Amino acid sequence: MDAVPALEEPLKKVLGPATAKVMAEHLGLHTVGDLLHHYPRRYEERGQLTHLADLPMDEHVTVVAQVADARLHTFASAKAPRGKGQRLEVTITDGSGRLQLVFFGAGVHKPHKELLPGTRAMFAGKVSVFNRRLQLAHPAYELLRGDTEETVETWAGALIPIYPATAKLESWKIGKALQTVLPSAQEAVDPLPESLRAGRGLATLPEALLKIHRPHTKADIEDARARLKWDEAFVLQVALARRRHADAQLPAVARRPKPDGLLAAFDDRLPFTLTEGQQKVSAEIFTDLATEHPMHRLLQGEVGSGKTMVALRAMLAVVDAGGQAAMLAPTEVLAQQHHRSVTEMMGELAEGGMLGGAETATKVVLLTGSMGAAARRHALLDLATGEAGVVIGTHALIEDKVKFHDLGLVVVDEQHRFGVEQRDALRGKGKQPPHLLVMTATPIPRTVAMTVFGDLETSVLDQLPAGRSPIASHVVPAADKPHFLARAWERVREEVANGHQAYVVCPRIGDEEDDPKKAGRKKSPEDEAEKRPPLAVLDIAEQLAKGPLRGLRVEVLHGRMQPDDKDAVMRRFAAGEADVLVATTVIEVGVNVPNATAMVIMDADRFGVSQLHQLRGRVGRGSAPGLCLLVTEMPEASAARQRLNAVAATLDGFELSRIDLEQRREGDVLGQAQSGTRSSLRMLAVIDDEEIIAEAREEAAAVVTADPDLTGLPALRTALDALLDEEREQYLEKG
Q1: No. of H helices and E strands in the chain?
Q2: Is 225 helix (H, G, I), strand (E, B) or coil?
């Protein structure tokens, strides 16, 4: 959107090399177009006219008054030791009261010449107190010659744009630079198709740019914002619509399950019926799989809503139809766990080619980076021959060595840990592009799904399967009420005494200091500001085992353990051979121990809202109710505490994801999405502008269907190229 041909003039030609250098280095602005799209953050009003008698403290005011008296004083100061310092004091009056103005240093010359007794002027500034008297320091002023009411009103009511600035470049200097380039806005080529713009009553782009930088009224600002938001939403949605369109042109093999095949045999074995939601989502997936274009579907479901079951049935349908299915997990622990639960659910159906395997059975293999050479060779052979219908693995699946016999479906678990590049690398392993199902347990508000995952169709599982128990969550204010923390450990002992198990989660492992790379690293001011480092697994485990949880079987799990050790700990915990597991967030995703009923999260304020929700989903997976205690030392009034209160107050992941998103910037949500350093969203707020995004998505789909290459819309093409160079359109990096 930035680089429209007429606006490609480099700033150094227009503003001079010094200013241009600061703009490039600190604000990422290089061309006239970049600067025109650097929008004001807010607007100051010079203030409604105020009587001197009722001036408010610390506010920006504008007064109309007459100069009663002006005196220039000289004084000695550190900067001017010889008594050469100058201070101009001007007293003004408007009949209701008097007010002092002060100007210092070089700033005295102009007002000393202009503010003569008897002169009327408007003065704008911030009211402060000096020597128990109200004053304005260095106010802006405008002399009133020929006392017209209109001058007073227009000057006082003017909206002053305040720009995102840096210490090297104040907002008003950016404003001045903008006034210089503003005439070029007339040349801005409009990316919106004329029919869309006129149909929605939106301002033209040149008009919107003028109004955003030099508004006369608040309505001007609203008009400009409405238009510029549309630009951002529409251009982004066109990029996504083109991607969907291109994907829909790809050929794929239709995969339909056999009526009496593997899927039917699996369904017959199930000890429970699928929820309505699972049946509905499965139907959507099977419809997609039966078409000759690759499915691209995002499956969102709360923790424990039974996504894995839906994904497994889709995988079995593909195996039924003669293809292979791969499930990609973000960590080895998770891959091993999926492998375990899938083979358990399938029973003899997972023992294809083995003694005791069912007739319709297939082989389910695991492939991870840390497997021994022999086991790995075996797994690779099973994949290449087609012996294995289902493979579950980590990034190791993407390696060049891995060859499939006929890859028909890729299931990606926990999308936020996978980029599009990885999805596409795996997709390239099929003879034709395989179908794709992306699963996430992080609830994503609808607008973010439309913006970030705009190239995928979305299915939502929002029912919890029968048998899931409610989870009670409480904030434990360890600093204000230490006895609450003591009670938390008592609760853990009670759960264990009732035959259950508990997790204790900490933000850090605790052996980092041994890492020479990190030990020598300088601490950032932020680290210094955090009074103490986050609590660590190794320290807390030791304290608990010797103190409040003495006598219980306490084990430790974290990401730097050897995969076999991790797996052994998880197996022992799952088998009930440990009472308390002290862990980092490695347990956040996919760990399933129905007997674990309590979770204590230490330093809970160091985790994000969605992450806390994910972690909490690890308890209450069986028939006994779950308990989640969020321990924090943050004070009552802090934002961090409010965030924790929000998590404790609701189990609705979609509600929490909205809160999470409102607290972070959209740029983070879109990841490194559309532009190198800055989020391409400057005007659009993903949560607030839900309607615009939804409408832009419809309009974009219609435009792309009618003209996929945008041949008739050259200005839109230009805007698109500015938003995404070729590769980025291929890989709209996912947040």
Answers
A1: 28, 21
A2: helix
Handedness of CA 207, 209, 211, 214 (dihedral sign): negative
State how far the Cα of 383 lies from the Cα of 631, in Å rounded to an integer: 47
Can you read off the two tokens belonging to residue 381?
């052979």
- Give the H/E segment covering residue 233: helix 218-249
Residue 155 confidence (pLDDT) above 70 = no
Tell me how crowded residue 339 is: count the other CB atoms within 10 A of its CB.
22
CA distance 394 to 12: 49
Closest CA to 591 of 332, 394, 364: 332
Widest CA span of the chain, in angstroms?
108
DSSP state of 620: S
* Closest C-alpha to 492, from 584, 596, 603: 596
Which backbone phi and psi does 158 adopt, to 5 degrees?
Answer: -60, 140
- Give the model's pLDDT for residue 421: 66
How many residues would you count in the chain?
Answer: 735
Spatial separation of the C-alpha atoms in residues 127 and 458, rounded to whole Å: 55
Residue 49 is given by DSSP the state B
Q: What is the pTM of this model?
A: 0.63
Query: Which runs of consecutive H residues, i.e. helices, occur in 520-608?
Result: 525-529, 537-546, 563-574
Number of neighbours of residue 269 by Cβ within 10 angstroms: 12
Helix (H) or strand (E) holding 643: helix 639-649
Residue 157 three-state SS? helix
Structure tokens given for 87: 């201070």
What DSSP string describes 238-306? Answer: HHHHHHHHHHHHS--------TTSHHHHHHHH-SSPPPHHHHHHHHHHHHHHTSSS--EEEEEE-TTSS
At 325, is the secondary structure helix, strand, or coil? strand
Asked whether the predicted pLDDT for residue 452 surpasses 80, the reply is: no
The interaxial angle of helices 218-249 and 714-723, nearest 10 deg, is 90
CA gap 406, 435 in Å, rounded: 12
| Phi/psi of residue 542, nearest 5 degrees | -65, -45
Type of residue numbered 441: A
Give the pLDDT score at 6: 57
Number of Cβ within a 10 Å radius of residue 487: 13
Whole-number Å distance between alpha carbons of 145 and 152: 11
The set of residues, in sequence order, having a beta carbon less than 8 Å from that of 48 and lying 6+ positions away, is: 62, 156, 157
Q: Which amino acid is at 24?
A: A
Q: What is the DSSP letter of 186?
A: G
**How far is it, in rounded angstroms, from Cα 168 to Cα 6?**
28
Q: Quick one: 527 exposed, middle or buried, by C-beta within 10 A (0-12, 13-18, 19+)?
A: exposed
Task: Report the C-alpha dihedral over residues 268, 271, 275, 280, rounded to 10 degrees.
Answer: -20
d(Cα 307, Cα 174) in Å, to the nearest integer? 51
Stretch 591-605: mean pLDDT:
88
pLDDT of residue 312: 93
Residues 6+ apart with CB under 8 A from 126: 58, 59, 60, 61, 136, 137
Helix (H) or strand (E) holding 706: helix 690-706
For residue 164, list its beta bridge partners. none
Nearest residue to 182 (alpha-carbon basis) of 157, 154, 214: 214
Q: Which amino acid is at 703?
A: V
pLDDT category of residue 61 using cuts at 50, 70 and 90 = confident
pLDDT in tens, 658-683: 777 666 544 433 333 333 333 456 67
Alpha helix (H) ranges present in 364-511?
Answer: 373-385, 420-427, 446-452, 482-497
